[in-house]
Specification:
The chain is built from eleven helices and five strands; from the N terminus they run ααβααααααββααββα. With about 350 residues, the protein is an alpha+beta fold. Strands 1, 2, 3, 4 and 5 form a five-stranded antiparallel sheet that branches. Strand 2 and strand 3 form a beta hairpin. Helix 2 packs antiparallel against helix 11, helix 3 packs antiparallel against helix 10 and helix 5 crosses helix 9. The longest helix is centred in the middle third of the chain and has 58 residues.
Length: about 350
């Protein structure tokens, strides 16, 4: 028992002595750590200063999908059935939840925003600002000079259509990956936030505004498309019936005009055409009244179904600027270099002791 205790004491003593020896060795190399901290801090400082500032353009808005036609659907559909029009509810939930976020990230919407004119310079597109920001023209000049002929403000030759589509697809992927963030303001909020981060302040603001405008316009048109189509059909039918009714009224008046001194024994020459035109006018009048009622009900339904998109905040100059902190970068880089120095010293001593033994 005493022998075991003695062995444990010896082992513990060896461990303590070993740790002291390692500590003494590490402390004796303090100048390596000073050099490492200075080098790491300098690297971190110059890294932070060499990074371009990131400009963030943010738009937040609240979205109300609009009332469906559930309450008045049966009444409107019944009335519109007289005109042969289906007034089914429109929209549904196709853009609810994550679907709306994916719409902002879709190729169609991003391409449409990129091809809009720049607000600050009407001679160029937002696409041109993206190319300037990414130094695309310099790369093309060296590797793909044919792409320098691309000018999306004009019709693109057939020989360059494939190149144009390829470039736009790459731009969409790049923007989704590095520049665009679409999310809710926070988990409990219903506010939607669109962030565009880039090294070009003008591009961030203009692309953000263009994308939000494109998506919101597409969203509203899609949600109300069915109701707008029904209103157009009803309006066309009402105009047609009104034209026929006006024609019948004119026919009645003309019939009287062409028989001013009608022989009492020839009443059929005036009576039959006038009564026929009067009957047709009264029939069309009743139809027109019903159609106008249906048209007004459809317009009321459209107002209820139209979604409300109200912007809360819009990007304004100057945009929020984010730069890497020189102090934080210096501290992190100094710590990393010092840790690597520590690892190298430990490995060196361990290897030296193995060779001695």
């Amino acid at each position: 028992m005493n022998k075991t205790n003695n062995q444990e004491m010896v082992s513990l003593k060896d461990l303590v002595l070993g740790l002291k020896d390692w500590m003494r060795y590490i402390l004796s190399k303090w100048y390596f750590f000073v050099i490492a901290v200075l080098i790491g801090g300098s690297i971190g400082y110059y890294y932070a200063k060499s990074q371009e500032p990131m400009y963030t353009a943010t738009t937040t808005f609240v979205l109300e999908a609009g009332e469906g036609a559930t309450n008045t659907g049966g009444q409107i559909a019944g009335l519109a059935a007289l005109a042969g029009v289906n007034l089914g509810s429109s929209g549904g939930g196709i853009f609810q939840g994550d679907n709306l976020f994916e719409l902002y990230k879709s190729r169609k919407m991003i391409e449409a925003a990129l091809l809009l004119p720049s607000v600050s310079d009407s001679s160029m597109l937002i696409w041109d600002r993206y190319l300037m920001m990414t130094d695309a023209h310099k790369r093309w000049k060296e590797h793909q000079p044919t792409l320098l002929e691309l000018d999306l403000k004009k019709p693109v030759p057939d020989s360059l259509l494939r190149s144009r589509d390829s470039l736009l697809q790459k731009a969409v992927l790049d923007i989704n990956k590095n520049y665009l963030i679409v999310d809710k303001l926070d988990k409990k909020s219903s506010l939607i936030k669109i962030d565009v981060n880039s090294t070009d302040e003008i591009f961030s603001k203009e692309f953000n505004e263009a994308l939000v405008a494109q998506v919101n316009d597409f969203y509203v048109k899609t949600k109300t498309k069915k109701s707008l189509d029904n209103i157009a059909i009803l309006q066309h039918k009402a105009d047609s019936v009104r034209a026929v009714m006006n024609g019948n009224i004119a026919t009645n008046a003309l019939t009287i005009d062409v028989t001013p001194n009608l022989n009492p024994t020839r009443q059929a020459q005036r009576l039959i055409p006038t009564q026929r035109s009067q009957f047709s006018a009264e029939t069309n009048k009743a139809m027109l009244s019903q159609m106008i009622q249906n048209l007004e009900l459809s317009k009321m339904a459209l107002m209820k179904e139209s979604p409300l998109i109200q912007k809360v905040d819009e990007p304004v100059f100057p945009l929020l600027v984010e730069r890497p902190s020189a102090l934080k970068s210096s501290i992190v880089a100094a710590f990393i270099v010092a840790f690597l120095t520590f690892v190298i010293l430990v490995v060196k001593k361990w290897y030296t002791e193995i060779l001695k033994n």
